[in-house]
Amino acid sequence: MFKNLTGIIILFSIIACNTSNEKADRIYVNAKIWTGDSTQPNAESIAVKGNRIIYVGKDYETFRGDSTTIINLDGKFIAPGFIDNHTHFLSGGHNLASVDLRLAKTKAEFIRIMKEYCEKNPGDSWILGGDWDHEAWGGELPTHDWIDSITGEHPVFVSRYDGHMALANLKALQLAGIDRSTPNPEGGKIVTNTSGEPTGVLKDEAMNYVFAKIPDPSIEERTTFLERAVQHAFRNGVTQVHDMGSYGGWLDLETYRKARENNNLDLRIYSFVPLSSWKKLDSFCNKNGKGDDMLRWGGLKGFVDGSLGSTTAWFYQPFLDAPSISGFPVTDTNNLRQWVIDADKANLHVAVHAIGDRANDFILRVYDEAEKQNASKDHRFRIEHAQHLSSNAINRFSTLKVIASMQPYHTIDDGRWAYKRLDTDRLRRTYAFKSLIDAGAALTFGSDWSVAPLTPIEGIYAAVTRRTLDDKNPNGWYPEQKITLEQALRSYTINNAFAGFQENKLGMLKNGMLADFVVLDNDLFSIAPEKIKEVQVLRTIVNGKEVYIR
By residue range, what is the domain housing residue 249? Predict the structure, then answer.
């Protein structure tokens, strides 16, 4: 017995010696490190070998070798790499070089920006992107009359920033065959004027009339979008994105797989495809597996409803400024229910968009049913946005172990005008971060880029302060829902790793974990909350590789 015990002790001694003798490729020293690891929350140095962390602590000399590079950070702040839980990554990359109507604060500016873009880009190509917000100029929806005379031969289809309605010019309407006799599709609306003529604004499923006429970008174009988006992500400290698709999901995945095969993908991506295609994904995974630590798939994204800004979010009660409507489901609810249940049985990961209180309650019931049919499975069901919750929904997130996949920047954006749509009772459960955490729910954060900026720093600022963009809520919009800095950081790191089944590899800085982290120019814990948005990313490290240095 003692002989065996002695052997075990010797074996562990050898392992310990091997570990301590391991020399780092790089050691970052003299830093203020928030590790995300509750057993060792703070440190001063971090050692990296290859793509893994081999030490986090203070006394790093044991890991210094003859070829080790020492990087003195002079007290700068290190955090785990930011994971964005919800992007439309390729369209974000496209929009970085497209017309930017988010800058328009008046009708005149909208027209001017579009005119200048068309003058610089003559021809007959489609003009897409846009990201306009009619609330910026008082709530009047744009019409095709605004831009027909300045867009020339270009067909135009520019989206509101939430992606749930878009403006088509007359040429695009004609290409899509839309006129006063075109019916509203189920789950969508063609906006018309008092004479019954289409104004050019299409909501949710009605947008498909135009989408069907827009040619898919080539693989070369999509690769350009990807390269542009990746560099933008690195500049903002993002080391992984959960991508909900821009071009039907499958073209996005094809783009990422090609980049990975060419050894040209330094950003981690978890790629989702439409829930309706779950059978195709099941077959694809059975043939190809589910990827690796850099590129993974196996996730499905569905929709219950639209958005608050487009008055297509599904509520129990009508909108204050549109008392005849209360939104609607954009997917047949019978189909949606069955897809969720069947996809879950196939061991695929399900995430569903829900904005309104009725939409959230509906999908929570579906998840409850799916869990009961397959109770032994680790589902990690997600509700994307979880924006407006009923009084019963908050505790159900915890009870059902459903992940609230939220985007805090929307809080300080929507908070400027949401009072037009909703009464106080509904608003106080809008982006209910603290209530969800207090109930024990898993809360994760991201951007919904390009709906909102791909900037985790601004997202953290929004979650901690809830100060709206118009500065009219200096103490926070519904301040009782503000959360702590550490809670916000966890929602961008370890919680997001959990939401993607990677909590044993990513999301915290710990010996043996993959080396993804970010260096910031200021200690987030030592500055006033309102100063957080001014913090800059200095370095971004993914898989042990410095992919960005400011």
Answer: 219-545
For residues 181 and 285, state if they share a domain. no
Instruction: Check: CB of residue 165 under 8 Å from CB of residue 207.
Output: yes
Give, in order, the Cα–Cα distances in Å from 164 to each of 27, 127, 303.
46, 17, 11
Phi, psi of 163 (to 5 degrees): 75, 10
Total-model pTM: 0.90
CB neighbour list of residue 38: distance below 8 Å, 6 or more residues apart: none
Considering only 2-11, 18-27, 116-125, which range has the smallest mean pLDDT? 2-11
CATH number at residue 353: 3.20.20.140
Alpha helices in 177-271 (DSSP H): 208-211, 219-235, 250-261
Q: How many residues does the chain have?
A: 550
For residue 417, what are the contacts with CB-CB under 8 A and spacing of at least 6? 135, 139
The whole-angstrom separation of Cα 100 and Cα 130 is 5
DSSP 316-334: SS-BTTBTT-----SS-HH
* DSSP annotation string for 39-59: TS-EESEEEEETTEEEEEES-
Residue 155 DSSP class = -
Q: Kindly state whether residues 369 and 457 are assigned to the same domain.
A: yes
Closest C-alpha to 547, from 234, 233, 79, 84: 234
Per the structure, how many domains does the chain have? 2
Beta bridge partners of 303: 353
Between CA 222 and CA 93 the distance in angstroms is 9
Q: Which residues contact 538 (CB under 8 A, 6 or more apart)?
A: 76, 519, 520, 521, 549, 550
Residue 455 and residue 405: Cα distance in Å, rounded?
Answer: 16
pLDDT of residue 20: 55
Q: Does 16 have pLDDT greater than 80?
A: no
The bridge status of strand 165-168 relative to strand 382-385 is unpaired
Task: Write the pLDDT tens digit of every residue in 122-139.
Answer: 999 999 999 999 999 999
Which of 187, 211, 235 is the C-terminal boundary of a domain? Answer: 211
